[in-house]
Automatic annotation (TrEMBL):
<keyword id="KW-0238">DNA-binding</keyword>
<dbReference type="GO" id="GO:0003700">
    <property type="term" value="F:DNA-binding transcription factor activity"/>
</dbReference>
<keyword id="KW-0805">Transcription regulation</keyword>
<dbReference type="InterPro" id="IPR014710">
    <property type="entry name" value="RmlC-like_jellyroll"/>
</dbReference>
<keyword id="KW-0804">Transcription</keyword>
<dbReference type="InterPro" id="IPR036388">
    <property type="entry name" value="WH-like_DNA-bd_sf"/>
</dbReference>
<dbReference type="InterPro" id="IPR018490">
    <property type="entry name" value="cNMP-bd_dom_sf"/>
</dbReference>
<feature type="domain" description="Cyclic nucleotide-binding">
    <location>
        <begin position="15"/>
        <end position="105"/>
    </location>
</feature>
<dbReference type="GO" id="GO:0003677">
    <property type="term" value="F:DNA binding"/>
</dbReference>
<protein>
    <submittedName>
        <fullName>Crp/Fnr family transcriptional regulator</fullName>
    </submittedName>
</protein>
<dbReference type="GO" id="GO:0005829">
    <property type="term" value="C:cytosol"/>
</dbReference>
<dbReference type="InterPro" id="IPR050397">
    <property type="entry name" value="Env_Response_Regulators"/>
</dbReference>
<dbReference type="InterPro" id="IPR036390">
    <property type="entry name" value="WH_DNA-bd_sf"/>
</dbReference>
<dbReference type="InterPro" id="IPR000595">
    <property type="entry name" value="cNMP-bd_dom"/>
</dbReference>
<dbReference type="Pfam" id="PF00027">
    <property type="entry name" value="cNMP_binding"/>
</dbReference>
<dbReference type="InterPro" id="IPR012318">
    <property type="entry name" value="HTH_CRP"/>
</dbReference>
<feature type="domain" description="HTH crp-type">
    <location>
        <begin position="147"/>
        <end position="220"/>
    </location>
</feature>
Length: 227
C-alpha cells in the first residue's frame, strides 16, 4: 500500500511554521507554486541552481552518494521544510539530491536573498533552522558510532512516528515513505543488517511491519531499544 500524501500543514518547528501570516504571504508572493510526482528529483547534487523551495505538502528524502555510488540518506523532510538554502546563500553547487517520496507541492523562490533583505526577522529564523540541522547532523554522527544497527533503526522509526504517526488503538501507525534500501542509507547500514534489525524488533513485539508501513505497538520499549 502506497503512503498517502502528507497534509498541507507545516510540521512544528519547520521553517514555514515559524513565519507570521504576513511573512508567509510575502514568501508566496516572491515565489511560485510547483508540484512533483512521487520519485521525481526536485534538486540534484552538483547542480548550479540557487532557488529555494518551501514544501507545503508531501515528504522528500535528502540524499548524497559516496565515491563508490552508495546512497546515503541524510534526512526526510515534510511540509514546511526549507530546501536548497545553502546554495542560495553561498552560490555553490547543490550539496545533496532531493527526491519526492510521494506527490509533493511547494513554493519555489528564485531570489531568496532579496526576500531575506526585505524581511530581517526571517533571516534570523533561517539561522536558527540551519543551526538546528547542524545539531541534528552531529547527533546522527554520534549515533553511528555509539549504537548498533537495531538501535539506529529504532531511533529513525521513533523519529518518523513522532513526526508522522497516527494513533491506531493503542499503537502508532506510520506510513513508511522509505524502502528498506533507503532506510539502510538513513541508518548507515546494509540492507541485510536493517532487515535483521526489523526482524529483531518484530520478535520483541515492539513493531509490526508491512509494505511501506510500520505499526509501533510499544513506543516506550522502542525508545529503550533506541537508547
Amino acid at each position: 500500500m502506497s503512503p498517502s500524501p502528507s497534509p498541507s500543514v507545516s510540521e512544528p518547528g519547520e521553517f514555514l511554521s515559524l513565519l507570521t501570516p504576513e511573512e508567509a504571504a510575502g514568501l508566496r508572493t516572491a515565489g511560485r507554486p510547483r508540484r512533483w510526482d512521487r520519485g521525481a528529483t526536485l534538486m540534484a547534487e552538483g547542480d548550479a541552481s540557487d532557488w529555494v523551495l518551501v514544501l507545503t505538502s508531501g515528504r522528500v528524502k535528502i540524499s548524497s552518494h559516496t565515491s563508490s555510488g552508495t546512497e546515503v540518506v541524510l534526512a526526510v523532510r515534510g511540509p514546511g521544510a526549507l530546501l536548497g538554502e545553502f546554495s542560495a546563500i553561498d552560490g555553490l553547487p547543490r550539496s545533496a539530491t532531493v527526491t519526492a517520496l510521494e506527490p509533493v507541492e511547494g513554493i519555489a523562490v528564485r531570489d531568496f536573498p532579496a526576500f531575506l533583505r526585505e524581511h530581517g526577522r526571517v533571516a534570523v529564523l533561517l539561522l536558527q533552522t540551519v543551526t538546528g540541522r547542524v545539531r541534528d547532523a552531529d547527533r546522527k554522527r554520534i549515533e553511528y558510532g555509539a549504537f548498533d544497527t537495531a538501535g539506529r533503526v529504532a531511533t529513525r522509526l521513533l523519529e518518523l512516528a513522532e513526526r508522522y504517526g497516527e494513533q491506531a488503538g493503542g499503537a502508532v501507525r506510520v506510513a513508511l515513505p522509505l524502502s528498506q534500501d533507503e532506510l539502510a542509507g538513513w541508518t548507515g547500514s546494509s540492507r541485510e543488517a536493517v532487515s535483521k534489525a526489523l526482524r529483531s524488533l518484530r520478535d520483541r513485539g515492539l513493531i509490526e511491519t508491512g509494505r511501506r508501513r510500520v505499526v509501533i505497538h510499544d513506543m516506550e520499549g522502542l525508545r529503550r531499544r533506541a537508547r
